[in-house]
Amino acid sequence: MQTLGFFFYIGLIFTFYISSFSIAFTKIQYPVSRRGLTTSRQKDPDPDPDHLLDDIKVEVDPSLQFDNPRLKKAYCAFQEWKKTIISDPLNMTVNWIGPDVCSYYGVGCVQALDDKNIMTVAVVDLNFGDISGQLVPHLGLLTDLGILHLHSNRFCGVVPKTFSNLQLLFELDLSSNRFSGPFPSPVLALSSLRFLDIRFNEFEGALPPALFDMDVDAIVVNNNRFYSHLPKNMGNSPASILVLSNNKFSGCIPRSIGRMQNLEQVSFANNRLTGCLPEELALPKFIIVLDVSKNYFMGPLPKSFERLKMIEKLDFSSNQLTGKVHDSVCSLPALWNMTITNNFFNEIGGECEKLIEDTLVMEDRDNCFSRKPNQKHQKDCLSVLSRPVDCKTIGCQPRDPVILAHIKRKAAKPPPPPPPTKPTPLSNTPKVTPSTPKPPPLPLPPPVASPTPARIFKNLPPKIVSQYSSPPPPVFQGH
User: Fold this and answer.
1) Secondary structure (3-state) at 347
2) Domain of life here (predicted)?
């Protein structure tokens, strides 16, 4: 019963945390998940990661006494991690001294799942610590860890391979740091993971298809350097949150997205996606937020969008979409905000016009509407509207020469400034080569301010008690 009580305790923490998430945008807040995220199917841990810990030596002062071997391993992990920390302005690790690891700031201990008679480390939370350092392989010794929060720090480097040993980890937040390299592959081995947030880092390359075969409820990878086409098996994911914005993804939205029946919030904003919006994008019936802005989508709005009965917010801005904005979309029962700016729409339904006057907030400037102010020049409209797009044949690459030219202009970099003219040195004047100072490093984006749930944990520094939890995924922020 105590073992079940522990699992219920962790479940309560997780449920309260996730259900408290919201995405603030003007005058509405979106719940993060309709589904309960506490369902943690216990799979047999992959035995392969164990050998990664073989080379880690657990050597501690023999005079120190530990209640059990797991706390001894945790002590080793925290001490090795502390050695890499070069800046801790809030003194979050100042009391990481001695064998009582359960009293360390940001560390939470509970009864082990497999042995009610021993205590073990289940939570590490260093959110908003502004700590500079790296992750160490020794963290793989925390095999009972369920929550790891490192939001808004300055950790850099890569995620150690030993993280694949954290088979009970169900919530991983590495957001707003300086991690780099390809997608952290050890994450793919975490059978219990339900919430993954790695936004605002410097990860690059392709998203592995295996990510969408995981039983993860939230995939938040925005504001990195990911590129390439999106995996075709995206529809295999049971996620309710999918945030891919502010990367460099290209190609089309995979049609398999129609199989993501739990999907509630999805953002593809500010990438290099092309082609037509797929009809299948409207098949997930629980979508409340959809953002495809700042891409290169073409053609009309799919007729299937009239099925989005729960949609509250739509953003199609800054694409090359054409045709009519139909009444069936404007009059969706839950829709209150729609943005269509900077496209080539040239007709809008009469019911849409009425709703705009009454309840619907619609931004429609920079289109091709004949009787509306602040529209595109007629010449620009004709150059696109005279070449209708056939979504059955357009494929995933833009074919229209006007759009290709637009993309080329948008992607073109300004020419470098001409080199400075060197004066002719006098015969008796020593020749001095001027050096160009390096620009200062770009600062990290500021963390997204958001309401934070009041979760009860001991041993947290007083300065950050009110900011304990991670912020919500920014579906419509940071474009």
Assistant:
1) strand
2) Eukaryota
Using alpha carbons only, what angle is made at residue 392 by residues 391 and 396, rounded to the nearest 5 degrees? 65
Q: For 207-269, list the strands marked E by DSSP.
A: 218-220, 225-229, 241-243, 248-251, 265-267
What is the secondary structure of 156-176 as a DSSP string? EE---GGGGG-TT--EEE--S
DSSP, collapsed to helix, strand or coil, labels residue 279 as helix
Mean pLDDT of the chain: 81
Q: How confident is the model at residue 413 (pLDDT cuts 50, 70, 90)?
A: low
Spatial distance between the Cα atoms of 216 and 292, rounded to a whole number of angstroms: 22
pLDDT tens by residue, 34-86: 444 333 333 444 445 555 666 677 677 888 999 999 999 999 999 999 999 99
Nearest to 246 by CA among 219, 265, 267: 267
**Cβ proximity of 139 and 150 under 8 Å:** no
- Within a domain: 476: no
d(CA 303, CA 347): 15
Where do we find the tokens 């998940």?
33
Q: Is residue 259 part of a domain?
A: yes
- Report the side by side order of strands in the sheet with 178-181: 132-134, 154-157, 178-181, 202-205, 225-229, 248-251, 272-273
In angstroms, how far apart are the furthest CA atoms of the chain? 92
Residue with tokens 């749930």: 453
Q: What's the token pair of residue 20?
A: 């408290």
β-partners of residue 337 are 313, 361
Find residue 133's DSSP bridge partners: 155
Alpha-carbon span 220 to 197, nearest angstrom: 5
Report the Cα–Cα distance between both ends of the chain, in Å, rounded. Answer: 48
Q: Is 367 exposed, middle or buried (0-12, 13-18, 19+ CB in 10 A)?
A: buried
Domain that holds residue 230: 2-409+448-467
Counting the structural domains of the chain, the total is 1
**pLDDT at position 473, please?**
60
In a domain, 442, yes or no: no
The CATH number that applies at residue 89 is 3.80.10.10
How far are the Cα atoms of 38, 277, 289 from residue 285, in angstroms, in the given order? 22, 17, 11
pLDDT at 432 over 70: no
Residues 6+ apart with CB under 8 A from 249: 226, 227, 228, 229, 230, 268, 271, 272, 273
Give kind and range of the element (H or E) at residue 383: helix 378-385
Sequence letter at residue 314:
L
Rg (CA), the chain: 26
Asked, for residue 78, whether it belongs to a domain, the answer is yes
* Total residues belonging to the chain: 479
